[in-house]
Amino acid sequence: MSVLVNKDSKIIVQGFTGSEGTFHAEQMIEYGSNVVGGVTPGKGGQKHLDRPVFNTVSDAVKETGADVTIIFVPPAFAADAIMEAADAGIKVIITITEGIPVADMVKASNYIKNKDCRLIGPNCPGVITPGEAKVGIMPGFVFKKGTVGIVSKSGTLTYEAADQVVKEGLGITTAIGIGGDPIIGTTTKEAVELLMNDDETKAIVMIGEIGGQLEADAAKWIKENGNKKPVIGFIAGETAPAGRTMGHAGAIVGGSEDTAQAKKAILKENGVHVVDSPAEIGKKVAEVLG
């Protein structure tokens, strides 16, 4: 079992022939992900990386049966790309694009609410199920198969946590980078819930950061559902000054509950094993799974 993506996922790349799309599609294909084609309007009928190019997502789905897409479309057009994928019946829409205007994301997230799909991101590193499918921009070699799920707002810390877990002799079921924008498709709680319901996942690493309520909501849900699996938590941004956007567009401390200290307290109250430094994640996972 894995969540969101696996060896059977049929993946297309939106923005396939652009420089980012090309570079990361090559890496994904090299990793062994089942990339069945891509979309670049106006270039339909061509071949790229030995895969067919389509003018629309709907054409790609008809021809290839694609059920997962990864979006490398410039910010101004990315919300339309998300809505187009949802319309075409894609089940998992992974959006890497950073800097999508918030107003566009409001429109896109309302539009896809009643569609049978799940949006990951935007402004995220993607999703990887080690040994099966990498749908994102993460360095695949860091991830080895195992029993620890990862949910993270931060791209870099996703790889850091995976590296530490692997060095402890453990491995990863699926790592989900949810993205750091104010409006994202899948919340921390929803990603944690997917991993809680996955039989192979024995523990979950939850990496958050200052700003917003996502980690608090997840922690409360974990406790309400009986702390079924151990969750190891880290919150980035301990030293960030209040009221300033830090790194991610969503990382701005609005109220007192948005600070790293407050979030860590909420996590602890709800039974999450909190570490104070990202360097302690691997050790804590090994200790908890003991």
Automatic annotation (TrEMBL):
Q: Would the keyword Nucleotide-binding be found if you checked this record's keyword annotation?
A: yes
Q: Which domain of life is it from?
A: Bacteria
Record: residues binding CoA: 17-20, 43, 96-98
Q: What class of enzyme is it?
A: ligase
Transcription regulation in keyword set: no
Query: Which biological processes are named by the entry's GO terms?
Result: tricarboxylic acid cycle
GO molecular function per UniProt: nucleotide binding; succinate-CoA ligase (ADP-forming) activity; succinate-CoA ligase (GDP-forming) activity
The CoA-binding domain, residue ranges: 4-100
Q: Which reaction does it catalyse?
A: GTP + succinate + CoA = succinyl-CoA + GDP + phosphate; succinate + ATP + CoA = succinyl-CoA + ADP + phosphate
What are the entry keywords? Answer: Ligase, Nucleotide-binding, Tricarboxylic acid cycle
Q: Which GO terms describe its cellular component?
A: succinate-CoA ligase complex (ADP-forming)
Q: What is its EC number?
A: 6.2.1.5
Please state the pathway this protein functions in, per its UniProt record.
Carbohydrate metabolism; tricarboxylic acid cycle; succinate from succinyl-CoA (ligase route): step 1/1
Amino acids binding substrate: 159
Q: Where are the transmembrane segments?
A: none
Q: What does this protein do?
A: Succinyl-CoA synthetase functions in the citric acid cycle (TCA), coupling the hydrolysis of succinyl-CoA to the synthesis of either ATP or GTP and thus represents the only step of substrate-level phosphorylation in the TCA. The alpha subunit of the enzyme binds the substrates coenzyme A and phosphate, while succinate binding and nucleotide specificity is provided by the beta subunit.
Q: What NCBIfam families has UniProt attached to this entry?
A: PRK05678.1, sucCoAalpha
Q: Which family does it belong to?
A: Belongs to the succinate/malate CoA ligase alpha subunit family.
What name has this protein been given in UniProt?
Succinate--CoA ligase [ADP-forming] subunit alpha
